Request: fold
Amino acid sequence: MTSRHPPVNDWATDFDHTDPGWAADPYPIWADLRQRCPVAHSERYGGTWLPVTHELVSEIAYDTEHFTSRSIVVSERRPGPDDLPAPIGLSPPITSDPPYHGIIRKMLLPAFTPGPIAALEPFTRELCRELLAATEGRTALDAATDYAQHIPVRVIVRFLGFPQDDADIFRRFIRQVLEDVDQSADERRDTLKELDAYMDTQIAEHAASPRDDLTSFLLEAEIGGQKLAIEHVRGTMTLLMIAGIDTTWSAIGAALWHLARHPGDRRRLAEEPALMDTAVEEFLRAYAPVTMARLVAKDFDFHGCPLKEGDWLLLPFPAANRDPSVFDDPDVVRLDRARNRHAAFGLGRHRCLGSNLARMELRVALQEWLARYPDFELADPAAVTWSGGQVRGPRTLPVRLR
Amino acid sequence: MTAGTFRVHVDQDKCQGHNRCYSVSPDLFDLDELGMSSEVGDGLVPAGLIEAARLAVDNCPEQAISLTAVRP
Reply:
């Protein structure tokens, strides 16, 4: 991806997660920082911090006193007076702080437990088969745009009960929210307004004719005998849409990218289906797509760093997953890594709500791909592109099929 | 101590519902309606499931699971 910002000179003092170097290959950057300074700082975005060790990332994830989740996407736009205040935030519960966070998270958790997610598996499998059937006769395709990106969009659209034909609209919104973070604050506000307007249309249609989906569930849900505010419903729908699509698309794409480049792993996984469970966890560890963020809640000294209230702080779970003090040979992908305490879905009370859904989608997407195309390779390694910002995954992934 | 007698336990304050333990050792853990985990029954680990219990411990991102030897 391109960035409107000047190139980074020194990652320890001037980092920028929208820099093309970060998008292309952030791992050497984090490895270098781990040696030099475990918490990097940048004046960009009005002041941002970046811890890169598993220990510090964990400590911050568990510390809701000094760090607020009120905004979790670092951009030029900090939450202002127009936004829902703490502890709810723009997209509850990801932008909420305790104790309110726990109340609204509990409301959502049952829908994401293994039982309800298993019920979505046949739909997901059928979808993957349809996508692959549509590639019949081709000798090359883009694994990111012809396959990976369609899977989570259609699954989430079904989950929320939106029109299946709106998938393209979602993809545009998601790109704007997650990748165009170097937009001006005004441009960013306009993007969010447009997204709100879309959600309001869906809410109005569901209010007029309720159905069995998550949108109707949110409209009917009550906390303490009160229905949720419309801003709350809209924020949660926005969250589920954004958090559920780009992330899983990235994870599926990164796993296929790895397999395209490692024929040994590809053959082994195709021939030993029992390896799939550990392989999925290992892909999640090695290529975790999501870097979270926090705002500093109050001035304090964090391991010698003078954090100021309102500073951004990136929470790079992908960097924690490559920390050699926690993982043996962290840069090596071992499909049978049996002991894998990775943090791809975050740590603490904000653990990814959709982790079971994401795992199911990743597993099914790889199973179906390998069943149809056990042998494939990158058509042109230089043509592969990666998204930058806080969700990293392949956005162009041309492969040659055998 | 009897060889092979272990008890597994999920710290409810630490569990965040990743469901990794349930995934690697479904015989040893139960999930509640929110997806939070707890050990089955009194947590005593059958001899054949000790490795499964260790895997649950070593795959919990929150380090919420303990495995301790039980004195007879």
